[in-house]
Amino acid sequence: MTDDYFSIGDDGELLEMREEPYAAENLLQILLAKYPNLLAGRQISSGEPRRWLLVRREMGVPDTEDGSARWSLDHLFLDQDGVPTLVEAKRSTDPRIRRAVVAQMLDYAANAVLYWPPGKIREEFERRCRDDHTDPATVLRECVHDKSTDQFWQSVESNLQTGRIRLLFVADAIPATLQRIVEFLNEQMRPADVFALEVKQYVAGERRSFRVRIIGKETRRTTSEKSKGTSATKSARKPDPMRLEYWTQFRQRLAAADPNMQVHRGPSDASVDVSFGATGLATTVFAYLAARVSVRQIGVRLRDPGGVADAILHVREQVEAQLGFAVIGAGKLGVPIVETSWKCDPADRVHWPEQHDWLIDKLGKLKAFFESDAGIEILDAARRGEAEVHDSSSTATDR
Q: Residue 56: what pLDDT?
């Protein structure tokens, strides 16, 4: 049974809208680029509807480090939280929509997370804006609203590095085979989201209307909802047994190397937090299966960790020379962001000791830096700054 759709024309006459397939795949792609709201941001996150920022069409994806583009993604969008959203559009009459498009999209996602270099997405967005004769800052403000430009792009890099992305298959009709695959992937691919989207077109003369429906949303919380989290949901999740074993062995090896470092549960089973004892610091360590291990951000036990980030950036070259890896800037809530990764396969148990030793070496360098005179000065300066702010607030309240 099909629904009947009607529209009232400019002359007041009732028009019967009939469903019409897209004459060409490119027409659907043009629509998505011109009208991003067709991507059903409210259905993806009803409490905080997604707003969309088009990075560009035909976004190149390499398959090696520093390599040229091997594939072209139909569209790359970002939402207001900086979550990269990879979009592939197909007509329902294209036989690739049933299975081949899934392998295609997984190729894009796996290689984009690994091989898009830092700053690549921002560079492509700004190039697209120049091509369209629009101002990148103005376009960004319309989507982001309450974040600074630097904070937004740091969120993009952080989301990409941690695999917090969204895969979106778009067609005028989603076949049952693709729907089953999407629902399965959406349940398995934490922290990524995988959805299918139907964008049906209805026509009456020159008038067109569209009906959109998201598929896969009901199987699991979305990236925006997951980031808020609830204790009930967290307790209901079943952690990956291999990852649990990976971190158990890492904890034992770290305890033998430095008993003053403590391992704590991370934001997902792909990561743990490591605290540095009396220094008041912790850092998040990631292990992405079939990808890499990395040290990512530094948590500081201060109300406002931004002071530490500012102090580190002020002496960035000195810090990078001592650590041997990059200092990127301040992430969400102002936490300092560092970056060092080793491309390897944490699913390969034989090489776990090597991977754990590599992580322990990097953690040791971080701990040594913040126990050095330069590191102690950075922390003391941040604490003094926080105390001054607190004293000023107390004085203002007393008055």
A: 95
CA distance 338 to 348: 26
- pLDDT attached to residue 397: 41
H or E stretch covering 225: helix 223-228
> What's 80-106 look like in SS3?
CCCCEEEEEECCCCCHHHCCHHHHHHH
Q: In whole numbers, what is the pLDDT of the chain averaged over residues? A: 80
Report the residue count for the chain. Answer: 399
**Which range, of 164-168, 222-226, 370-374, averages the lowest pLDDT?**
222-226
Q: What are phi and psi of 44, to 5 degrees?
A: -70, -40
Higher pLDDT, 316 or 133: 133
Distance in Å from the first CA to the final CA of the chain = 71
Average pLDDT value for residue range 16-36: 93
Phi, psi (degrees; rounded to nearest 5) at 73: -75, 135
Distance CA(55)–CA(44), nearest Å, equals: 19
- Residue 337 burial by CB count (10 A; 0-12/13-18/19+): exposed, middle or buried? buried
Whether omega for the bond prior to residue 95 falls within 30 degrees of 0, making it cis, is no
Q: How many whole angstroms separate alpha carbon 283 and alpha carbon 217?
A: 32
pLDDT of residue 337: 62
